[in-house]
Design a protein that fits this description.
Residues 5-201 form the Ketoreductase domain. Belongs to the short-chain dehydrogenases/reductases (SDR) family. By secondary structure, the protein is an alpha/beta fold. The chain has a single domain (6-256), classed as 3-Layer(aba) Sandwich (Rossmann fold). Helices cover 42% and strands 14% of the residues. It has 10 helices and 8 strands. The chain has helices spanning 15-26, 48-59, 74-88, 111-139, 150-153, 160-180, 207-216, 225-232, 271-282, 293-296; strands at residues 6-9, 30-34, 63-67, 93-96, 142-147, 185-193, 243-247, 250-253. Strands 3-2-1-4-5-6-7-8 form an 8-stranded mixed beta sheet, sandwiched between helices. Helix 4 links the parallel strand 4 (93-96) and strand 5 (142-147). The chain is globular, with a radius of gyration of 20 Å.
């Protein structure tokens, strides 16, 4: 379903990104396999994992090249797209998958922890997408596939930087979808549930969290790839500005924030009337302030 397409996948040396690159190549795409090869916290660089993915694609009869640039660097992000165009003549889909984790409880999170995660996730999505946009616009087609997370959509402990970046990616994707619709370009998000080296760094502080991690181990990275390949294909030309999730054999469509309760007061609100009238009317519609991703998806996947 991707015959003749050119797809760039960031963070494709390992885990989810690797599985996406392999499947896109299997479906006929020429793939730019980008991976800086850094540690889970973003330190160091090693082109080896990306090269291994490329070698495996070629061994199976597919087409792929390596790009070892950092998506956090605008020039590096641009090189990903330029390599695609120089080698294969075009770019049809961008998969913004690259990521790092620097999980810290809020009161211990440093500016460095914040900036590092925002740079790779949110700024990285912007950098790579911005580089591909002129090509998409000129050819009147293209697909952006961004990776968000339920840590941003719902919330999680110790991930203020990651959660903010991942929810910011949703806002970025929505704006791209609206701005680029007239050019035939679509933009969607996926929240993946899959065991990876990043997930493996999350500590279990109690039995419930330990059980959740064990459930995550059953969710293999290859389960995410089919939806990505679909969104990169022409079969998805009417699909844009959506948020999906993949959890083993489940695919979700997520809702977006919309008003759930409106209270009008003809003579306007005071501090006292908000406390006495608005709050009792609105409280039944409040979300649980302690709810986190694991509470929503606490059941075992099938």
């Amino acid at each position: 379903m991707l015959e003749g397409k050119v797809v760039a996948v960031t963070g494709a040396g390992r885990g989810v990104g690797r599985e996406i690159a392999l499947l896109c190549a299997q479906e006929g795409a020429s793939v730019v396999v980008n991976d800086l090869g850094a540690s889970a916290e973003g330190d160091g660089a090693d082109v080896g994992p990306a090269q291994e993915t490329v070698n495996d694609i070629k061994a199976a009869g597919g087409k792929a090249i390596v790009n070892g640039a950092s998506v956090a660097d605008p020039a590096g992000a641009t090189s990903i797209i330029e390599d695609a165009v120089k080698t294969y003549g075009r770019i049809d889909a961008v998969v913004n998958n690259a990521g790092i984790l620097r999980d810290r409880i809020w009161h211990k999170m440093s500016h460095e922890d914040w900036n590092a995660v925002i740079d790779v996730h949110l700024n990285g999505c912007f950098n790579v997408s911005k580089a591909a946009t002129p090509y998409f616009k000129d050819q009147g087609s293209g697909s952006f596939i961004h990776f968000t997370s339920t840590s941003g959509l719902i919330g999680n402990f110790g991930q203020a930087n990651y959660s903010a970046a991942k929810l910011g990616i949703v806002g970025l994707s929505q704006s791209i979808a609206l701005d680029m619709a007239r050019s035939g370009v679509r933009s969607n998000c996926i929240a993946p549930f899959a065991w990876s080296r990043l997930i493996a760094t999350i500590p279990a502080t109690n039995e419930a969290e330990a059980q959740r991690i064990e459930r995550m181990k059953t969710m293999s990275a290859d389960k995410i790839a089919p939806l990505v390949a679909f969104l990169a294909s022409d079969a998805s030309t009417e699909v844009t500005n959506q948020i999906f999730g993949v959890r083993k054999n489940e695919i979700f469509v997520f809702s977006k924030p919309r008003p759930v309760r409106t209270v009008h007061k003809s003579d306007g609100w005071t501090v006292k009337s908000i406390a006495e009238e608005f709050l009792p009317a609105a409280r039944p519609f409040f979300t649980d302030p302690t709810e986190r991703s694991g509470d929503i998806f606490g059941y075992d996947p099938i």
